[in-house]
Design goal:
Helix content: 40-55%
Largest sheet: 5 strands, mixed
Radius of gyration: 21 Å
Shape: globular
Strand content: 5-15%
Number of helices: 17
Structural class: alpha/beta
Strand order of the largest sheet: 3-4-7-6-5
Distance between the termini: 26 Å
């Protein structure tokens, strides 16, 4: 895979920013189109992290105007994070009062647990996993807090087919709460392959504002992040690889790789896990046992047609047909791929075509 000079420079900056120790002075590769690098960094939501890295890694050669831009992004994210943290604490208190247990997914959960400072991991919504039987209570609680369903006419459809509903609230900043209940994993069939019991049995915790909040932990979190990165973002977003890298570093020596591989097989997402771990290792130097990748590795033909070079360093949205192709390659079984093709060609309803296939093609 050919890496453009701006992408190579960006990776140098990211790895320095993620380093657990202060680095010696290092100069960015040159020549570089700094405007292109700025666009890449913004597209991949890396500005706040890069500002942190530049403050401690002494990387030379970055223009002052770009340093100022990343500092501004960091300050904005700190303010955004504080706003979302206040909202999250209000929601957590209300859910506790109404006896609605929840697991915090992504966003603040990752920022709090994996990153060294507040405001380094951008996010723009709050993802909560609740038990299926408490959806109505959770909806009622959010409504009392001033939230409303984003698309009320689609609530029944999303409850039946997708297992999640988005709630909005306008204020000083726009707030969105994505309420999940079927599973913490993206489910491409009518029954989730990642059981509700398995999600709730894999709980970790963070502390925020004097309150303890439940989050996913261990192998379940690593699998969840890998599937989210693969199926929902088709590997487009370097900040998501930073999440995987930091989780692997934090959990080094504690990950039960046998359990992880077994979970991936049971959830039919071995390929998603393989590519997420492989790219995190290749891009950022994440430590992954070679034997694990050997066990997960797809056939050579499938690996050969995976367009990694068109995915990892994009500065524009992934084209729809490319996204469909990548998602097709991520389906683990021949039967699943055949079902996906038939669903796409045979259904007159796009939502049903996506939902009734093992993995969505759109």
């Amino acid at each position: 895979m050919i890496v453009p000079p701006e992408a190579a420079a960006l990776l140098t900056l990211v790895k320095a920013s993620l380093s657990a120790t202060l680095s010696v002075p290092e100069r960015c590769p040159s020549p570089i189109d700094w405007t292109t690098l700025q666009r890449l960094a913004r597209r991949h939501r890396l500005g706040p992290l890069l500002h942190y890295g530049l403050c401690r890694s002494r990387i030379l050669g970055v223009p002052e105007w770009l340093r100022a831009d990343w500092e501004e992004q960091h300050q904005d994210m700190v303010a955004t994070a504080l706003y979302f943290q206040d909202a999250l604490l209000e929601i957590a208190a209300a859910f506790d009062d109404h006896r609605v247990p929840f697991i915090l997914l992504k966003g603040e959960a990752l920022s709090n647990a994996l990153y060294p400072e507040n405001g380094l991991r951008p996010y723009d919504d709050i993802d909560l996993l609740v038990r299926s039987e408490t959806y109505d209570a959770a909806k009622s609680t959010l409504t009392k807090l001033g939230f409303s369903i984003r698309h009320p006419s689609r609530e029944a459809e999303r409850r039946q087919l997708f297992g999640e509903v988005v709630f909005n609230k306008e204020g000083l900043r726009h707030l969105a709460v994505d309420l999940h209940w079927d599973t913490a994993m993206a489910s491409w069939e009518l029954q989730s392959s990642f059981s509700e019991h398995e999600a709730w049995a894999s709980i970790d915790q963070i502390c925020l504002g004097g309150r303890t909040l439940s989050t996913l932990g261990g192998e379940a979190l690593l699998l969840y992040l890998s599937v989210h990165l693969a199926f929902h973002h088709v590997f487009d977003g370097l900040i998501l690889f930073c999440d995987v890298f930091l989780l692997l570093r934090r959990e080094a020596g504690r990950i039960d790789w046998e359990r992880l591989v077994a979970m991936a097989a049971r959830c039919r997402c071995r390929r998603a896990l393989y590519y997420s771990l492989t790219f995190a290792k290749g891009l950022l130097g994440a430590e992954v046992p070679a034997g694990v990748l050997d066990r997960l590795r797809p056939p050579a033909l499938s690996r050969g047609v995976m367009p990694a070079g068109r995915l990892l360093f994009r500065d524009t949205v992934v084209p729809v047909m490319l996204e469909r192709w990548v998602k097709f390659l991520l389906i683990d079984t021949r039967r699943g791929r055949w079902r996906a093709v038939r669903a796409l060609l045979g259904s007159s309803h796009p939502f049903l075509a996506r939902r009734n296939s093992p993995h969505p093609l759109a």
